[in-house]
Fold this sequence. Notes:
Its EC number is 1.17.1.8. The chain has 233 residues and is of the alpha/beta class. It contains seven helices and eleven strands.
Amino acid sequence: MKIALLGYGKMGKVIERIALERGHEIVLKKDEFSTYDGLSTADVAIDFSVPTAAVDNISNCFHANVPVVSGTTGWLEHYDEMISLCNEKKGAFISSSNFSLGVNIFFELNEYLAKIMSQLDSYKVTMEEIHHTQKLDAPSGTAISLAKGVIENSQYTNWTLDEAQNNEIHIEAKRIGEVPGTHTVTYDSPVDSIELKHTAHNREGFALGAVIAAEWLAGKTGIYSMKDVLNLK
Length: 233
Ligand SMILES: NC(=O)C1=CN([C@@H]2O[C@H](COP(=O)(O)OP(=O)(O)OC[C@H]3O[C@@H](n4cnc5c(N)ncnc54)[C@H](OP(=O)(O)O)[C@@H]3O)[C@@H](O)[C@H]2O)C=CC1
Ligand SMILES: O=C(O)C1=N[C@H](C(=O)O)C[C@H](O)C1
């Protein structure tokens, strides 16, 4: 399969290695100043860039009729626009705040736990995410997805980085050294606590998940999620 890499930073480089190991060919490595030359020859594009570049990258894929897998976080305010463009161009799209198998299992557990805890007034939920100091966005896309998973299954209505008021979920975003990504969901009561925690040991899980998603998406049309790829629906 011919793959275009949109973003060739920390993630792009790990994705390149895993894609080559799985027998794929890289036809474009786009960073900030390079062009999209080669994009139209790709079977699929994988976007791990920066919040300000994701919309251009994804739009260019739809215009070039190339299926696109996007892992970039911090551009959610343009999500509906990209969905409309995908539908208009009859494109193929998967975006996820986290492509690792472990985090996608964690998402399922988070939703299940939220349903149970929604019946118990004595517990209050909070979230913590820890990432490396080069990360541009806060809170992480994964923390936002976790908060949405709770909101859709409980009485909580929104998340905040500030002190939580009624029905708000507080997210603590920490930036420390080279941490690849640690997320914790905590339910705390006066008598005990329950914690769900995922710790990434490196970037391999994110990158492998993105390559698997790209293999799954190539040749398809439509808008999908990691639930489709991993058969979690
Ligand atoms: N969904 C998931 O599973 C995961 C998502 N992420 C997300 O992926 C994104 C990338 O992370 P990471 O690799 O660590 O970040 P890096 O900062 O290491 O890499 C970002 C890359 O994007 C490039 N870039 C900047 N502008 C453009 C542009 N206009 N077009 C294409 N590329 C551009 C940069 O180029 P240059 O070097 O020239 O500046 C750089 O190569 C982040 O949003 C992060 O949150 C990260 C891990 C997992
Ligand atoms: O920027 C990162 O590094 C990561 N970003 C994603 C996010 O914002 O959730 C996923 C992962 O935690 C690593």
